[in-house]
Specification:
NUDIX_hydrolase_dom, alpha+beta, hydrolase activity, Nucleoside Triphosphate Pyrophosphohydrolase, 137 residues, DNA mismatch repair protein MutT, NUDIX_hydrolase-like_dom_sf
Length: 137
C-alpha cells in the first residue's frame, strides 16, 4: 500500500474479460461482494507477470502472451477499508487458455451484466459504467 498526500493507496491489477455483454467476476469465500479477477504485484513483478500469476491462482487459466493489452486505470474508495483508503485498479484485457474454474480463495465465478454492478466493489462499479458507456455491457 502506497501513500499519496496522506491517502493510502492500494495498487491492484485486474483482468477485464467481457463476452456476450457480460464481464467475468469472482466472489471469495465468505464474501458477498464480487470483484474483477486480479490482485497485487509481488516484489519485482511486471504487470503482466503479476496478472498472469493472479489469474492462474484464482481461475486456473493462463493468459495468452501477446494478447495482453492495457485497458485503463480506475480509482475509488477501497471496499471494506477505512475512509481515506483508495484502490487504484490498472486493468488489462487478454485472451486465455484453459477452462475457468475457481482456485485459491475463489468460491464463485460469475458472468455479470451491467446490473451486476450492484453486487460489485466500488471501483468495479466505475469499470461497469465505463464498459456500458462503450457499449460492451
Amino acid at each position: 500500500m502506497g501513500t499519496e498526500a496522506g491517502t493510502a493507496v492500494i495498487d491492484k491489477l485486474a483482468w477485464l474479460r467481457v463476452e456476450d455483454g457480460r464481464i467475468l467476476s469472482t466472489r471469495s469465500y465468505g464474501k458477498d461482494t464480487y470483484y474483477l479477477p486480479g490482485g497485487k504485484r509481488e516484489a519485482g513483478e511486471t504487470d503482466h507477470e503479476a496478472l498472469n500469476r493472479e489469474i492462474a491462482e484464482e481461475l486456473r487459466v493462463e493468459l495468452v502472451d501477446g494478447t495482453i493489452e492495457f485497458a485503463g486505470v480506475f480509482e475509488a474508495p477501497a471496499h471494506g477499508h477505512p475512509d481515506g483508503v483508495t484502490v487504484r485498479m490498472t486493468c488489462y484485457r487478454a485472451d486465455y487458455r484453459g477452462d475457468l474454474e475457481p482456485g485459491a480463495e475463489i468460491e464463485e465465478i460469475r458472468w455479470l451484466d451491467h446490473s451486476g454492478r450492484e453486487v460489485s466493489s466500488t471501483v468495479d462499479k466505475l469499470i461497469f459504467d465505463w464498459l456500458r458507456g462503450r457499449g460492451e455491457l
